């Protein structure tokens, strides 16, 4: 029987944690303007007064590192906007033939002991492979890390 596996990456961001969280959640539809090399488009459905909430849906078209454009349809299954934390479950998408389940988790936490607004951005993916021959989704995680790096740089330029 397959088991749930987890990969994670922690990235240090110098931009405002609230701005980064907003850009990666409620303003995600704008990402293709700023990082068109990674994100082709993002559609957002079912927000509450402009904020993402339980049940909010995302349709992502993105370019993973070393691969062709892919699509995922995701739904928020856990969210804490105040603490900048979100979990999305992939409902369908191009890579779901390889996985029985797939979740993205994002947590943005101000780094303790600093006064410059530095935060730690932790992305994790939890997944169950459809069989043991399926490779770990390292390319997807690398793409997420690159997206975070580029958005951090973009937001720093705006400051």
From TrEMBL:
Pfam family for this entry, one: Bet_v_1
InterPro entries found in the cross-reference section: Bet_v_I/MLP (IPR000916), MLP-like_ligand-binding (IPR051761), START-like_dom_sf (IPR023393)
Ranges where the Bet v I/Major latex protein domain occurs: 2-158
SMART domains from the UniProt entry: Bet_v_1 (SM01037)
GO process terms (BP): defense response
Record-given protein name: Bet v I/Major latex protein domain-containing protein
Species of origin: Papaver somniferum
């Amino acid at each position: 029987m397959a088991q749930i596996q987890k990969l994670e990456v922690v990235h240090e961001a110098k931009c405002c944690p609230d701005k980064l969280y907003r850009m990666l959640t409620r303003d995600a539809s704008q990402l293709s303007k700023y990082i068109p090399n990674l994100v082709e488009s993002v559609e957002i459905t079912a927000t509450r007064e402009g904020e993402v909430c339980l049940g909010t849906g995302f349709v992502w078209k993105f370019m993973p590192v070393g691969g062709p454009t892919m699509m995922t349809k995701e739904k928020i299954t856990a969210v804490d906007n105040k603490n900048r934390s979100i979990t999305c479950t992939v409902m369908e998408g191009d890579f779901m033939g390889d996985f029985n389940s797939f979740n993205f988790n994002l947590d943005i936490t101000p780094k303790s002991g600093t006064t410059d607004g530095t935060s730690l951005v932790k992305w994790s993916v939890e997944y169950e492979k459809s069989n043991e021959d399926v490779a770990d989704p390292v390319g997807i995680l690398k793409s997420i890390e690159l997206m975070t790096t580029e958005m951090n740089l973009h937001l720093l330029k705006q400051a």
